[in-house]
Amino acid sequence: MAETPHLAERPLSPYLSIYSLLINMVMSILHRITGAALYVGTLLLAAWLIGAAMGERPYAMVNGVFGHPFGKLVLFGYTWALFHHMLGGIRHLIWDTGRGFQIWQVNLLSWLTIIGSVSLTLAAWGLALMLRGGL
Q1: Which residues contact 35 (CB under 8 A, 6 or more apart)?
Q2: CB 32 within 8 A of CB 88
Q3: What 3 state SS string does the chain have?
Q4: How far apart are CA 135 and CA 118, in angstroms?
Q5: How many other CB atoms are found less than 10 A from the CB of residue 85?
Q6: With a threshold of 0.70, does the pTM exceed it?
Q7: Distance (Å, rounded) from C-alpha 27 to C-alpha 2?
Q8: How confident is the model over 30-86, as pLDDT tens digits?
């Protein structure tokens, strides 16, 4: 058999093992994921509105689905995705003005986005549960 000539060892394209995971990389990935999740969540919102428009029985059925513990978990995730994506958009708006590009500022804005989205989600759900009277 003919032998294959040995090619010189050369680096491959950069791969995940080359990079260390940085907060701004995580935020970029989460921004894309939450954007996609908002599409699905908006379909659920549309289903709720359609149920309300169709009458009492369809509305009660949709509310029953959303009232189930899994439905509440999905709604909680949708609320977090909405706040996270909104704050990520504000972060990008700040960058569009030419500000916030130093590494410490990028890291600070990234952490503020995470902390803000979790805080706003918990505040919104806390307020809603308080007004509604519990789970």
Answers
A1: 85
A2: no
A3: CCCCCCCCCCCCCCCCCCCCCCHHHHHHHHHHHHHHHHHHHHHHHHHHHHHHHHCHHHHHHHHHHHHCHHHHHHHHHHHHHHHHHHHHHHHHHHHHCCCCCCHHHHHHHHHHHHHHHHHHHHHHHHHHHHHHCCC
A4: 19
A5: 21
A6: yes
A7: 51
A8: 999 999 999 999 999 999 999 999 999 999 999 999 999 999 999 999 999 999 999
